[in-house]
User: Which sequence fits this backbone?
């Protein structure tokens, strides 16, 4: 069973699953509720079926109970009863679930993903200048993208401009570590503490909301 890693710390619990099984094999690992079965039957792509099932298997493993994932009109997931905040992400070969008592977001991306075509859409001028000085420019672009995706998932705001409103504070990327970032909205600035690490040619990034500063 490829439950790759479970991480527990002061921020919450992270479960990581390597997507190696078929949907049929995954279905043997967790029973679906009537509502989940209806959702599952609407999914056509095998990759999406695997992501759907692995996510719910991870949630049960982290929660030690069967809990359904609900979705807000924006498409962002939440758990009933507000017991935990939940964030979900998938790469080509991994699924991730992050549970926390704090507002949080998580993203996982392949380290070798080519971000050149979309870099100008999500990097600020300051971030571009920083990355141009680095030896590992491609990885830095993926890391910055994943970090901004995590913040986007954490915030209830919509229509966020990644290159103008989500700003990564200056740091030198390594294979793991922490850094800070901020989300600029019209009425407030929210700061985030970020953590990241590499797992099997994927970089996983999660954020925890730190504070709001009213403008």
Assistant:
């Amino acid at each position: 069973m490829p439950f790759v890693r479970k991480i527990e710390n002061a921020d919450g619990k992270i479960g990581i699953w390597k997507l190696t099984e078929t949907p049929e094999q995954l279905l043997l690992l967790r029973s679906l509720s009537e509502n989940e079965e209806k959702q599952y039957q609407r999914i056509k792509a095998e990759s999406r079926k695997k992501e759907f099932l692995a996510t719910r298997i991870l949630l049960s493993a982290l929660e030690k109970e069967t809990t359904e994932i609900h979705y807000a009109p924006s498409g962002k997931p939440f758990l009933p009863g507000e017991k935990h905040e939940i964030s979900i992400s998938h790469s080509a070969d991994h699924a991730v679930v992050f549970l926390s008592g704090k507002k949080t977001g998580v993203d996982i991306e392949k380290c070798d993903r080519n971000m050149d075509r979309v870099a100008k859409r999500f990097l600020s001028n300051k971030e571009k200048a920083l990355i141009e000085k680095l030896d590992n420019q491609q990885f830095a672009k993926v890391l910055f993208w994943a970090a901004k995706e995590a913040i986007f998932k954490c915030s209830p705001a919509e229509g966020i401009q990644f290159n103008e409103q989500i700003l990564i504070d200056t740091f030198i990327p390594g294979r793991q570590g922490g850094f800070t970032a901020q989300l600029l909205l019209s009425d407030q600035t929210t700061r985030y503490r970020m953590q990241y690490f590499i797992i099997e040619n994927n970089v996983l990034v999660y954020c925890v909301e730190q504070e709001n500063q009213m403008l």
Remarks:
- The CA atoms of residues 148 and 166 lie 6 Å apart.
- The two ends are 49 Å apart (CA to CA).
